[in-house]
Amino acid sequence: MTEPKLPEEEARQGETGKGVRYVLIVSTIAAVVALGLIFAFVV
Predict the structure, then answer these.
(1) Using one digit for the tens of pLDDT, what is the confidence trace for 1-43?
(2) CB neighbour class for 19 (10 Å; exposed up to 12, middle 13-18, buried from 19)
(3) Which of 4, 31, 37, 42 is the most exposed place for a label (fewest CB within 10 A)?
(4) Residue 6: what pLDDT?
(5) Domain locations in the chain?
(6) pLDDT value at position 37?
């Protein structure tokens, strides 16, 4: 293999937004709650 031409920091294409982690956490919790409610009403 050849050596990389750029260091990792310079080779990155973009940066994730600062709120991405919180959006993922909130949406995962909301999906679990929604599926729980659906399951509670169906069974």
Answers:
(1) 677 677 777 777 766 677 888 999 999 999 999 999 999 999 8
(2) exposed
(3) 42
(4) 77
(5) 18-43
(6) 97
Q: Is the pTM of this model over 0.90?
A: no
Contact between 23 and 16 under an 8 Å Cβ cutoff? The reply is: no
DSSP annotation string for 1-43: -PPPSS-HHHH------TTHHHHHHHHHHHHHHHHHHHHHHH-
CB burial string 1-16: b at 16+ within 10 A, e below: eeeeeeeeeeeeeeee
